[in-house]
Amino acid sequence: MIDHLAGAALAVEPLAIPQEDDPLQAHFQSGVAPDEIEQVYHLKRAQPMLSAFTALFHGTQDGVLVRLLVLRELASDTGASSFSRADINNKLAYLTAESLETVLNRLRGHGLLAWDAPAAVYRITPLARNVLSALDTLFNLAKPEEDDAEMGFLLSQVAGAQAVGGVTVEQLRHLLGRLVELTEEFRDAIASGSEFRLRTSQAKWHMACDWVEKGSVILRAILQDPSADSATHKAAQAIGRAQSALLNMQGMFSRAL
């Protein structure tokens, strides 16, 4: 039997905060019930995923790097579906034994590694693969040094969700919010009268337009989807209007320059 959580009680867990020491209610105004807030409900439903991210990202940057390193190294080995401790020791021989043990206990205790006791092997859990897949998409499409990268990431989330019939209003609102931000940024550059800002923003506008064209195909699919609810259709229509506003800025740039 594979035990996804075995060892959690034995693992030293520095990030666990006793509920009585940090109750959720303490963060809210008197008279406000957290459970009556819609976003709290959604976040509580995602607790296993949030716990996985907490396990990975709580602590120092170096600690985070080592945990991700171990998990990514194991998950990238598609030639094996399980790993004995000897396999892991050999694969990660460049880490100290103490550090590797600490990381394995943490990953195992939060459901990112599963321990198969009869076979005496570790396995990557589906939760871990989902987390790593999301991170890989973020790493590849949301590079901070690339101005237009965040649009690619947001569009990839919408496109992927639409492909499997699960696009959410929240995903569309994130995309809409970024389009509105870019439009305001370009308007500010045009109003500034600075040639440097104008030319820099115009180059960024061209990149944004490329993503808008790619997004138009996804947007049409959402609008034509009979299974999409009214909130999804309204969000998609708002994105369409924001795209049009952004595309119509070409003349404004030309006149300003």
Task: Explain what the structure shows.
The protein has helices at residues 38-45, 47-57, 61-75, 85-91, 97-109, 126-141, 149-163, 169-192, 195-223, 230-247, 250-256, and strands spanning 2-3, 113-116, 121-124. 63% of the residues lie in helices and 4% in strands. A hairpin with a 4-residue loop joins strand 2 and strand 3. Mean pLDDT is 86; it is low at 5-20. It folds into 2 domains: 2-127, Winged helix-like DNA-binding domain superfamily/Winged helix DNA-binding domain (Arc Repressor Mutant, subunit A); 142-256. The chain has 257 residues and is mainly α.
Topology:
Elements: E1 2-3, H1 38-45, H2 47-57, H3 61-75, H4 85-91, H5 97-109, E2 113-116, E3 121-124, H6 126-141, H7 149-163, H8 169-192, H9 195-223, H10 230-247, H11 250-256
Structure described in brief:
The chain is mainly α and 257 residues long.
The pLDDT mean sits at: 86
The CATH homology group name of the largest domain:
Winged helix-like DNA-binding domain superfamily/Winged helix DNA-binding domain
Q: Which range does the strand content fall in?
A: under 5%
Number of continuous helical runs: 11
CATH architecture of the largest domain: Orthogonal Bundle
Domain module count = 2
What strand order characterises the main sheet? 1-2-3
Q: What overall form do the CA principal axes indicate?
A: globular
Sheet with the most strands, sense and barrel status: 3 strands, antiparallel
CATH class value of the largest domain: Mainly Alpha
Structural class: mainly alpha
Kindly report the CATH topology of the largest domain.
Arc Repressor Mutant, subunit A
Helix and strand string, N-terminal first?
EHHHHHEEHHHHHH
Query: Distance between termini?
Result: 69 Å
